[in-house]
Write the structure tokens for this entry.
Amino acid sequence: MTNKGGRMRDTGTKLTQEDTEHFPEIRQLSYAGVRYQLNHQLALGATSTVFKAADEWGNPLVVKRYQADADAAMWKKEVANLHRLRHPRIIFMHAAFEQQGWRYIVLERWGVAFGRFKLKKPQGRERLCRLAARSTLEALHYIHRAGYVHGDMNPGNVLIKLTEANKPVGIKLCDLALAQAMVPGSRIKLKVAAWNPAPEWYDTATFGAVGQPMDIYHTALLLLEVLLGELPVFSEEEIVRGAPQRLALDLHSQLGEALALALTPQASERPVAVALWRAIAKATSPQLPAAKQ
Ligand SMILES: Nc1ncnc2c1ncn2[C@@H]1O[C@H](COP(=O)(O)OP(=O)(O)OP(=O)(O)O)[C@@H](O)[C@H]1O
Ligand SMILES: [Mg+2]
């Protein structure tokens, strides 16, 4: 999951697709008196396989099953994070348990990875950007105020729910496996997503400590990708020289300027989540792209 230097992998767009032929070996689970039915694979992550599922109440769910050889501490940490960080814009955990050598997390099902949803025409992009900004930044505001860093903001960890006509309904944040509480003053080298790392991840001495501003940077990158339709792969050199910020400024719009501020290479100069949202809200029309939530 980590990426040290070199060219970056774009986990957001290269996610393994849904596989309707692949089912888990154990398809019925029972925990705390509730039965769960597991269906086909929805995604194959680096540490887990995510299966479509439902409980006997009829709730649409997914079951995230950690790979057998995955670090048990990571599962524990994700469960603890999902338990601590409950919020309407964060995927809700229904249950978590170990059974017959497997570790599971049962989660509300919420659409598809954001990176899989592309608008062909540029018209709706600004409105989609606003919708994504509102939800991700609201979630981040809550996470950051709790003293945590998400640490893995990328288009695979933001989920978008769509209507049958493919209109966006709402967006939520998932994958709290790398989230962690920050101890003020301490310098933590966070494990970070194999997406475009922020400048401080390469060079803390120049750009500041790795922490909440990294989430803001990654969110702005994600929103920039929405606006551009796709995001170039940045080299380490381009990142530390501020190429993403330049790209945002080249949009020559108020929205581009708001994103450029969040893409400032200096971590301490980036806005906090709610300030970035205010700038984006001011720069965009409040009209939602589709049916309201
Ligand atoms: N609640 C959910 N509803 C619908 N799809 C989901 C849900 N949770 C996860 N997914 C799908 O599974 C993918 C992987 O989930 P997640 O990121 O939690 O696992 P991971 O093993 O940490 O993956 P990675 O290492 O790629 O980040 C997501 O990108 C998404 O496509
Ligand atoms: Mg993930």
